[in-house]
Give the backbone structure.
Amino acid sequence: EALLDLLRALREGGAATGSQILLGAETLASTGKHDEALDWLGPIALDPTEAIPQRRALLLAVECHRALEWSRAGELREMALASLERQPAAATRRLALAMHEGGTSREAAGLLRLLRRSVSDRVQRTETTAALLRVEREAGIDWGGLGGELAGFFDGFVYRVESPDAAIAVHLPAPGHDAQGPLVHPNAHRFAAWINEQLEAGPEEAGALADALDALPSPARDHWLAGLLRARASGRLAADARIVWDDLTPGSAERSAFLETLPGCGSEGVALARALVGESALPGDALFRNEPERQVAFLHRIGDRARLVEVHAALVREARSDLFHQNGLEDWVPTLAKRRRLPALLAAAGERDLAGSLFRAYDGAIAAYQWNHAAFLNDYAAFLVETEAWDETEDLLRAVLRKSLRLDLRILPRLYAAWGKETEWRERVRGFHLSRGQELLVAGWIEALAEGGELRETRDSW
């Protein structure tokens, strides 16, 4: 409340910066004051001159509208139109889907068509058409009326595998929980999973979709994804999908994409993917060669832990190479900069043992901590805290902070609160080489945790 009083005074006096206004809106939203947060966000969300603050404001506005159960959903259209100028297509699609969720599906569909006309990138056109199909189908348009959009989707389809964000928070699922986490999500897999949800609504839905896919003109009808979805709609996935598989060239990108998409077709798709992988007799690290993020995601989805262990073993071997420590090499060369997210991905998938082993292998491969290791070390420290390796976390932080590497200092209050040593933290961080200002920040965070508050980083700790 003291922070909000200060920020309100700055805003009312016209002295608040954009970052202060965003901080105020985030604080208001976190305390349930969503209406007021939207009032603060409006000017920034509509201003395309600063793209990054605008994007933060747009995405937070969506969450506020959702919390208000879309009572002010009419404001989203103006924000979405403002996003077209400088925001990536994904941000505008997010807003369009929020409009659809808020009950303005017709306007959302119009916005998606406008976006599709304005982007030249074929991948973004594919994503936008997929979103348009979802909006129109869920708005009640039957599959027969979507034949033109379906044909356009398959004719212009470009396969893309989305990598996780560069900064992956390590939040471990409970043991045995089948977590998806921040795993890579191929666009065809997501589309197939949505179609699968539609088909599970009943046989009438399956029949209507099968008829629409059968009516597609060539070449859309001959696309491998259309063939896979026809097989799923037919109720004979295992048999009909194998026909599509056999028509694809062994070792081709289409076969890899087909295999990666199968788990989106439900349990029967997972079983078929496992069978095809087993018949190939390939080890895990030979699938999607030199793309371990795809390997981890796919093998986790089909539950093939034996091959996942093979991927882990190959990653550990890579870490022993002299090249692993270098920077500025080509993308295909395995280095810590390229691989550093993989232990966190394994952790997010519920593979704690494999994640811990790979974290330690990567840490052991570092001869001396340097600035370019900070992102990996943040992930490693978070993993150690969540796996209750208290002493190991403290040893790591001591070694890293003595070198003044830019770690997220909020790991310190998280460690000592989880460890039950909140009252001892001052003595324990002696020798960590924290500045007086950093110690004051940690003290504030410790107090916030004790009061059930959030760890807000209101300024750069470094």
